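Dear Dr. K.,

Following up on our conversation at the group meeting, I've run the structure prediction for SusD/RagB family nutrient-binding outer membrane lipoprotein from Flammeovirga aprica JL-4. I'm pasting the input sequence below exactly as I used it, so you can double-check it against your construct before we proceed with anything downstream. Let me know if the numbering doesn't match what you have in your notebook.
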Amino acid sequence: MKNIFKNILLAATITAGSMSCNKLVEGESISPNDPQSAPAELVLPSAELALGFVHEGEMARLAGMWSGYFTGSDRQYIGLNSYNATAGDFDSPWENLYTSSITNAMLALKEAEEKNNRILAGQAKVVLAIGLGVAADLWGNVPASEVGDYENIPMPKYDDQASVYTYVQTLLTDAIEDIESAQGFGSKNLINTNIEAINTLKAKFYLHAKDYANAYAYAEKGITSSASDMTLSHEGATPYVNANTYWMFLEYDRSGYMTAETAYAPGFIEGRSNAKTDYQHIWNYLYTNEGWYGAPEPNSHPSFWGGQGNGFFDIATNFPITTYHQGLLIKAEAAAREGMLTESLTALNEYRAYMEKGGYLHPQYQTYLEPILDGSGEPVLDADEKPTYDTLAMKYEALTTADFAVGGMLNPDGLAEGRAYIREILAEKYVASVGLLEGFSDLRRTIKENDVRVQVPVLSGSSIPLRFVYPQVEINTNTNMPEVVDLFTPTPVNQ
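The predicted structure tokens came back this morning:
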């Protein structure tokens, strides 16, 4: 794996170098020992790797703080936690997304199509679609139709958000056809690209666009088991080679900058347990009480440094891009919004059955020890005067229609039944999206639905951020950039 990542980074360096330096050496001799390009099958994994950094790097950290998952606790992260972000703060995320992922995916796609390698072209279209979908979700109107050809179009136009989502769907549809053609060969598949996962991606981006009928239809065709999860592998877990990027930030590079000391999510998750569900297992997987004075922080501390190890933010934890359990929750929400409550409950209970068997948690967290107490609340001791414990397994019992009826367990305040379904599903998605961009997407998409949305508290001003702002590098160099807007202006689909 280490050599794979070295080759990928070399390919990315060669490609980026050839793009930025060609004019400086134009007319000079080219050494046969200094290649000016790399094969598409090496360039594409570099785009996949950059896409992984997008999902678990700086963009995810910002979105996570603004979604109530984390707390900015030191230096510039204190200001970012309170929404004090400038255009310059988005230069690096934008360049990582557009230069390292989208542009390299387009270079790989161009070569694959020239060589009629449809499988590789299909893989490239998936990476391109994810990158553009993320950009549209976070920024709204973004470059799409003219991006990637900087030689001829150095200042690409900004396409409206709805058009970008349409383009994303076209790319994913074409990718399925290309991969199913079985013509050609693929690259090293770092994110487990497969047909089921592509359909779940289609469902997710339809959900972003609030096209719930299509979101449900494609979720039905989506991932059927965790074996088809689309994730970035961190096998080997070597810092600066293949370690989880969250872990690198939390433990290796910027320890203490971001915790969960005052974050909303830890308390929200703790408060969700009820007669049919025990959320302690999930809390233990996501967070620890190893912060100052027992404050919560992301579960990233590895066992070789005295931590529990194997938590969601651990050095070797593979990072989800789209998964089986996410697809089930998309299906459940989309069905409820389309008035199909029977189908919604079925999907939700499929998710719950998956979780009761361990779900996406590492096996280490699928049980926990609870002290046995006597009638007065004192610990029950064994023969050696030591406390005794019960071992508690995952508890995610099936829900029934009665739970959502007025006065039911999940509807004590008398919402309309369909709205009670949506509220419960959004809450479950919020828990399942800790650390993911998807949590920030759901909060912004539902910001006007006060009866069902997760009520993440506002930390400054009157609203949580509703988008990313355009980066300073675009403001300075692209005359086609739309009017500059602040963090609190919704993207078009959410207005």
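Two things stood out to me. The beta strands are 71-72, 142-143, 158-159, 230-232, 258-259, 287-288, 297-298, 319-322, 367-371, 389-393. Residues 1-36 have pLDDT under 50 and may be disordered.

Best regards,
J.T.
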